[in-house]
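Researcher: Batch entry, complex prediction.
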Amino acid sequence: MQRYRIDISYDGSAYSGWQIQPENLTIQEEIENIVYKITGEKARIHSSSRTDCGVHARKQVAHFDLNKPLKERAIFKSLNALLPADIRIIKTRKVDLNFHARYNVSEKEYRYFIWNAEVMPPFLRNYRTHKKVNLNIDNMSKSALSLIGKHDFSAFSANRGYTCEQTVRELFDLKIKKKGSEVVIIAKAEGFLYKMVRSIAGFLIRVGEGKEDPVDTEKILASQERTARVPSAPSKGLFLWNIIY
Amino acid sequence: MQRYRIDISYDGSAYSGWQIQPENLTIQEEIENIVYKITGEKARIHSSSRTDCGVHARKQVAHFDLNKPLKERAIFKSLNALLPADIRIIKTRKVDLNFHARYNVSEKEYRYFIWNAEVMPPFLRNYRTHKKVNLNIDNMSKSALSLIGKHDFSAFSANRGYTCEQTVRELFDLKIKKKGSEVVIIAKAEGFLYKMVRSIAGFLIRVGEGKEDPVDTEKILASQERTARVPSAPSKGLFLWNIIY
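Model: Structure tokens for the complex:
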């Protein structure tokens, strides 16, 4: 048996996220179907992250096993030949059986993109959240500082009803960058809770709009209660950006 | 009567070009319909360029007249509120009746974008032509130099069967820039023949691929005959970039 690591980039606009669901088109299913076409093997594709409906990936990493190994180059070329243009394999390599795309992650980076100007360029409409009001980047950065570190992020994630779920995560870094009309929120952690990045982005946008005082961030975090003050920012602005092993 | 100039940006992917056609969705028709909704007036929208099916515009300029004038800001906001997200009004201003979006143009700039790497990023798939073979930029630039100036561009345009059509144009500038995997062909002229930029791009790509010798450019230009050596590059790589009055 041979294990393969594939690095994948996708435009999530047309998909119900990464993970296979009955009746819905997902990225995992698209890739598994093509791997089956190429190899005749029903390989399961394991990814670093199960990105949500509409979320994009600049770089997603996954692995799968084949009983009858093929050359890396052959897999790379045939996957890209058969996959739709909104899913691209950017790299393929053979890896040891002890490599696991999810369990071996040491750091994940997500980026949330906001277009902060009156008019949204038509070419970016599927890849940016649009905010016309000039965002206060200093206040967003102050709020972000309160979120860095190891905390219970229940107030900044979506409860999926798993009462035993571990809700402590360590946010290695969270920063806001502005260049022209583009505002980017960069978040790094070993792992994130469900909708955690979009919740943080949703709150930081409210701070930037002046609807929240950055000073309140710690209090909301400590409450461990998700409220309407922490909305999920739209999925189209979110990119899985990088995975480090 | 009041004349308005509107600067427009659009993603041409979903449209059969600028100019109204029966049975096909065009950008001109979309805008005329919305202007009618807003004003109740059947204003004709005159643009600087009738971009072809699938061609994009970073900046297109058009004008129209209203009998009952509205404020610039009201037109700007209501057009953007009612138009689809792939057509955006970037500026609206009142102009004199002697302003004409097409006849007063002093320079048009088109840019043709090529993604020159093995894998096309999924986010750019509708906005770039994909070429895997490493293009020879020096040879493309040499070929481009032979095209600058005042020439009969029949060999680098698509004959529409108008035998009396004037086929001499002055190409003010034509240059090739490469940054990372992106190659851009920048073309400036007062006006272009039908499919002229895509024909030039199609030939320059063949030069870059080593299928044509740049030395032959002058001979092909002088022939005034369009042949298979000058293919039209795909529309999705082409952007109307700027209009100067």
